[in-house]
């Protein structure tokens, strides 16, 4: 598998924050956790297709900016109303200060 | 005792979420959800937005038939609840059947406030249900001149949708400005100007003197002398809680079905939640309020479910709502009338947030407006600060370079 794509620089995202990444007609959200790990999910909320990168990261939760649907961004698990469909997650690796995601 | 099960009257956002929450919480007795509409429980916010503009409007169901079946939630639709017999713990329905309950939740919602004037006819309509939305949508596509009575959220969102469909739109508001209730003037002004730039005519501070609806068009005569002629008048002048069932059962009514912090009515086996109830808002010292908001309906539905199962948990949420008009989103958390001082924080792209502070410096509300979801994150952080009863430094709130999240940790 060689479908690793460079998303951004590691320093482009603050700790406990999220950034939008668009690639090839798709949109993703890249997260930096409070313990300085990186994660990636689909970019749109499963409730109403809103960009999650405008939302708030608290610990390991991303909250949708529109209706406060919550997901664990590390696992993609939906965490209660109004969202019930999980988010897809993607493998992430750090390479020479760059964040790469495997978007397969 | 538990065999009678949990009965929920009202199958909207609140009732639907309560039914799902009962199962999420592990309750395995009977759960029955009764609604007077023919649809699955659905979300109402799209009715004044996407349902108008979409080519193929459909309900946004809270739970599909499959999910209701899988979770053993019995949904009885198209029936009215007629009477509660508190002594025997039963509710009589319009089809003659009687459903027993061990705990009952009233999630009866609200209905549009009627304009008490003679002359109202078939071209004067209200919006509450999906079927109402379909009827209005058909008119918006076929007719040209739309009058909106009431410059509140429903009316303004409909005005935006109607403009999107090319209609000529006039909004009539009796107050001196639009969005008098709950929205600061500085933000209402942005919304007003946006509507004007989009070609909506807004008339404020003028009362309706007479309405004549001949079934083909509506003539609205204003006290100031203007006559508005429209093919359709949508009346959006607020909502009233549905309390008849509760009142006839002898439950306490106080601007809605009165409940305590645990959403319990004056009968310990009957709860009420969502638009239909008034409740003490802990964050403002127990001030009794009634909210007409999607998130409140959702949260109170879930909380009522918990407490029907005996959790004894008090409501602690901060009010929050939003409105989308054109490309703008407004979000407000808290009740701005609790504040006496305002601090403004400017964000990118013309977006800004007004922080409302009480006399003692406590943050009590935040109102934001901007393109897309530009204010969402800061409004959410403000909500957390409000819940914490924080007293953030006004200079920090006003400074673009100080992250709100850093104030939360303080």
Automatic annotation (TrEMBL), chain A:
Which family does the UniProt entry place this protein in?
Belongs to the bacterial ring-hydroxylating dioxygenase ferredoxin component family.
Keywords assigned by UniProt, alphabetized? 2Fe-2S, Iron, Iron-sulfur, Metal-binding
Where on the tree of life does the source sit, at the highest rank?
Bacteria
Which co-factor is required? [2Fe-2S] cluster
Q: What is this protein called?
A: Naphthalene 1,2-dioxygenase system, ferredoxin component
Which residues belong to any copy of the Rieske domain? 5-101
Give the InterPro entries listed for this entry. Answer: MocE_2FeS (IPR012747), Rieske_2Fe-2S (IPR017941), Rieske_2Fe-2S_sf (IPR036922)
Species this chain originates from: Mesorhizobium ventifaucium
Q: Where are the transmembrane segments?
A: none
UniProtKB/TrEMBL annotation, chain B:
Q: Name one GO molecular function term.
A: ferredoxin-NAD+ reductase activity
Question: Which keywords, in A-to-Z order, does the entry hold?
Answer: FAD, Flavoprotein, Oxidoreductase
Q: What is its EC number?
A: 1.18.1.3
From which domain of life does this come?
Bacteria
Q: What InterPro entries does this protein's entry cite? A: FAD-oxidoreductase/Apoptosis, FAD/NAD-bd_sf, FAD/NAD-binding_dom, FAD/NAD-linked_Rdtase_dimer_sf, Reductase_C
Q: Where does the record locate the signal sequence feature?
A: none
- Domain named Reductase C-terminal: which ranges? 320-408
Q: Cite a single Pfam family from the UniProt record.
A: Reductase_C
Please give the cofactor(s) recorded in the UniProt entry for this protein.
Answer: FAD
Q: Where is the FAD/NAD(P)-binding domain?
A: 7-301
UniProt name for this protein: Anthranilate 1,2-dioxygenase system ferredoxin--NAD(+) reductase component
Biological classification of the source: Bacteria, Pseudomonadati, Pseudomonadota, Alphaproteobacteria, Hyphomicrobiales
């Amino acid at each position: 598998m060689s479908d690793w794509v460079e998303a951004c620089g590691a320093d482009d995202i603050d700790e406990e924050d999220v950034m939008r990444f668009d690639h090839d007609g798709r949109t993703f959200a890249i997260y930096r956790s409070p313990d300085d790990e990186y994660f990636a999910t689909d970019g749109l909320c499963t409730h109403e297709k809103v960009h999650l990168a405008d939302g708030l990261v608290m610990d390991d939760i991303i909250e949708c900016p529109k209706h406060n649907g919550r997901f664990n961004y590390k696992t993609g698990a939906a965490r209660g109303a109004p969202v019930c469909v999980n988010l897809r997650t993607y493998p992430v690796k750090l390479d020479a200060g760059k964040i790469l995601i495997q978007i397969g | 005792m538990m065999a009678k099960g949990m009965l929920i009257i009202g199958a909207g956002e609140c009732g639907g979420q309560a039914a799902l929450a009962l199962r999420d919480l592990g309750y395995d007795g009977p759960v029955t959800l009764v609604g007077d509409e023919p649809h699955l429980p659905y979300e109402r916010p799209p009715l004044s937005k996407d349902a108008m503009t979409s080519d193929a409007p459909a309900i946004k169901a809270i739970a599909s038939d499959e999910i209701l079946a899988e979770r053993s939630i019995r949904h009885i639709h198209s029936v009215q609840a007629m009477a509660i017999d508190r002594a025997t713990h039963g509710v009589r329905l319009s089809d003659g059947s009687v459903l027993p309950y061990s705990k009952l939740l009233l999630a009866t919602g609200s209905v549009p406030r009627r304009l008490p004037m003679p002359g109202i006819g078939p071209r004067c309509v209200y919006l509450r249900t999906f079927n109402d939305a379909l009827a209005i949508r058909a008119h918006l596509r076929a007719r040209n001149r739309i009058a909106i009575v009431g410059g509140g959220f429903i009316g303004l969102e409909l005005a935006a949708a109607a403009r999107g469909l090319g209609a000529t739109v006039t909004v009539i508001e009796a107050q001196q400005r639009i969005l008098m209730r709950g929205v600061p003037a500085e933000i209402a002004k942005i919304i007003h100007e946006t509507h004007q730039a989009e070609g909506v005519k807004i008339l404020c501070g003028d009362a309706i003197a007479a309405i004549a609806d001949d079934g083909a068009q509506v003539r609205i005569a204003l006290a100031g002398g203007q006559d508005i002629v429209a093919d359709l008048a949508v009346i959006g002048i607020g909502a009233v809680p549905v309390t008849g069932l509760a009142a006839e059962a002898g439950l306490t009514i106080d601007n809605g079905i009165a409940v305590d912090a645990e959403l319990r009515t004056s009968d310990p086996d009957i709860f009420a939640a969502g638009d239909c109830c008034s409740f003490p808002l802990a964050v403002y010292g127990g001030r009794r309020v009634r909210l007409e908001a999607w998130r409140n309906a959702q949260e109170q539905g879930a909380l009522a479910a918990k407490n029907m199962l005996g959790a004894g948990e008090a409501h602690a949420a901060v009010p929050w709502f939003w409105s989308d008009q054109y490309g703008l989103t407004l979000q407000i958390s808290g009740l701005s009338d609790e504040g006496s001082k305002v601090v403004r924080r400017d964000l990118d792209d013309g977006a800004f947030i007004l922080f409302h502070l009480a006399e003692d410096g406590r943050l009590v509300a935040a109102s934001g407006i901007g393109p897309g979801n530009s204010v969402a994150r800061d409004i959410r952080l403000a909500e957390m600060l409000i819940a914490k009863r924080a007293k953030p430094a006004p200079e920090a709130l006003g400074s673009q370079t100080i992250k709100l999240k850093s104030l939360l940790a303080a």
